[in-house]
Amino acid sequence: MTDEPSDLPDSSRISVTDRFYISKEDLSEDFIRASGPGGQNVNKVSTAVQLRFNLAGNETLPQDIKSRAARLAGSRLTLNGEIVLRADRYRTRERNREDALERLLELLRKSTERQKPRKATRPTLASKKRRLEAKKQRGNIKKMRGRAGRQDD
């Protein structure tokens, strides 16, 4: 899907990796007031950015990457299939806009990496013996915690 030449101009797409990109049409931003300290500036100027990426409607990413991105997004994924990121770390709109976009691209880059399947292993005989010996020692320590003068039989 992404290996074919696209009819999108370079200015309307954002590169995720060297093979994958997203369209700027899948992004929308809203500017909202930031929370926290900042004096009058916080109350007057909407510098925080709420970036929305339409993951469900995206046509440039393969389905397996979309499903991994949805899993990585967690609670930031809406029921409509949008990833919503809020950035209010900086005092200016432009810095917050760049921060939100970079965090989205980082999430998408992580979703392009496939995890290696875990190989099931069994504990060695020596590790089993060490574990049981440690349990016996711990049990003996606890057994010694009885009242003074009490006789165990």
TrEMBL record:
Its EC number is 3.1.1.29. Residues 116-153 have a biased composition (Basic residues). The lineage of its organism: Bacteria, Pseudomonadati, Pseudomonadota, Alphaproteobacteria, Hyphomicrobiales. The keyword Hydrolase applies. Keywords: Hydrolase. It holds the Pfam family RF-1. NCBIfam families: PRK09256.1. GO terms for molecular function: peptidyl-tRNA hydrolase activity. This is Alternative ribosome rescue aminoacyl-tRNA hydrolase ArfB.
